Amino acid sequence: MALMITDECINCDVCEPECPNDAISPGEEIYIIDPNHCTECVGHYDEPQCQQVCPVDCIPLDPERQESRDELMEKYRVITAA
Prior knowledge:
The chain is of the alpha+beta class. The protein has helices at residues 49-53, 69-81; strands at 24-26, 31-33. It has one domain (16-81): 2-Layer Sandwich (Alpha-Beta Plaits). The protein contains two helices and two strands; from the N terminus they run ββαα. Strand 1 (24-26) and strand 2 form a beta hairpin. This is YfhL family 4Fe-4S dicluster ferredoxin.
């Protein structure tokens, strides 16, 4: 699954620089995650780094983007090959 940022986001700016895939960017009101670039840090780290640094715990799995670990690894390979 890709991750998502909920409206509980306080725009603290700590998640964006932690994303190794540059999937996080400022949205109109809160930060957003591009699901096409989010691999939950598979290929980079054991755990999603944005979740680790978020002070308000507002980055859950996106239930509309269910992906297996193998699918996330394939996405990682495609992203890093470009």
